[in-house]
Amino acid sequence: MRRLLPGVFGLALLCCGVAVAQEKAPIVLVLHADMSSGSAMAGEAIRRGALIAISELNAQGGLLDGRKLELVVRDHHGVPARATEQLPELASMPHLVAILSGLHSPPVIQNLPFIHEHQLIVVSPWAAATGMVQHELTPNYVFRVSIDDERVGEFLVARALARGHKRLGVILEKSAWGRSNEKALLAALARRNLKPASVQWFNWADADMETHLAAVERAGAEALLMVANAPEGAAIVRTVARRPPGKRLPIYAHSGIIGGDFVRQSGEALSGVDLRVVHTFSFLGNPSAKARAVAAKYHTLFGTQSDEEIFSDAGTAQAYDAVWLLALAIQKAKSTERPRVRDALERLGSYQGLVRTYQPAFTPSRHEALSPSDFKLATFNPRGVLVLSQP
């Protein structure tokens, strides 16, 4: 009997050690986004915002009595089929609490049944298609800390009309995101008893937009509503810039163009075009103490010197807020079980974030954290940096 005691005692210690290890297992968040293709800058901006928030939370001791947060990145290149292939791995990942989506909506929309079947919490710090968050699956596991197409459509139409442009052309990418925006833009026009001068569609990787732009011009458009990501948006800008100065249509753009290398791809054409982009947040000239503190951490973590070096800053800020909201939900749920965290996200109190003060961020009937009051227009300065326009 005495010879068994050391083994029993050792087994007890081993079991105790396993229990402690399980208690201190990391809390995993996954960034599931395009990290290497046309919208990779958006993915990297989200990654940086998430890492800043995680560094703050871990410096405070983590969550749930000392569990640290960890970010895992998976690259789907913006391709829905690739996202579908990767989701089973994510669903089986130990200690996974939530997924941060990237710039693209279709990888989420195509996989909504799987996401809800496996109770995967998805929080979008960028992707904007309305149907990604607003759908009939219940309970809803998708939340957004970003703009949404339905409201962006109203915002862009209102701003274009306010500047005196009465006949508006529309140009969109052929995707679920493009179709979401067509519905929103046409509805916003219809509310004013207006119709688009012309609606033009393009494919990913289209580099020649001459036919599309010529059709809009023949229809008598006075301005262009553009729904594009960086490569195709740059092609449109280059095409507009080839017109004589007095013939260049002003452009009101969705935020997709700022998720990639749009400035370099546009080249000198950018300075010759009247381009305004929907935006929510900028570190440039932002006097708030929180913005200054987060910008300082950004420079420390990523080796930048100036706020002008913080690219796609709305994506960074929205990802930062998204991670903090998830952390508050985990603390409120006192658990990392995804159904409990999901429920807690709908019952959070007030939180002062970077983009806004959330009062609260979500409710059982509203999974959109931002509102039209957060939308702004931005333009590119001579150095190609996005700056908020004056009201």
Describe the structure.
By secondary structure, the protein is an alpha/beta fold. The chain has two domains: 19-147 and 288-374, 3-Layer(aba) Sandwich (Rossmann fold); 150-279, Response regulator (Rossmann fold). It has helices at residues 4-23, 40-59, 80-91, 106-109, 112-117, 130-133, 149-162, 176-190, 210-218, 230-241, 262-266, 289-302, 313-333, 338-345, and strands at residues 27-33, 69-75, 96-101, 121-124, 142-144, 168-173, 198-202, 223-227, 251-253, 275-279, 351-352, 357-358, 376-380, 386-388. The strands form three sheets. It has a seven-stranded mixed β-sheet, with helices on both faces. Strands 2-1-3-4-5 form a five-stranded parallel β-sheet, with helices on both faces. Strands 11-12 form a two-stranded antiparallel ribbon. A hairpin with a 5-residue loop joins strand 13 and strand 14. It starts with a helix and ends with a strand. Mean pLDDT is 93; it is low at 1-22. This is ABC transporter substrate-binding protein. Residues 1-21 form the signal peptide.
Quick structural overview:
By secondary structure, the protein is of the alpha/beta class. 42% of the residues lie in helices and 16% in strands. Helix 7 (149-162) packs across helix 8 (176-190).
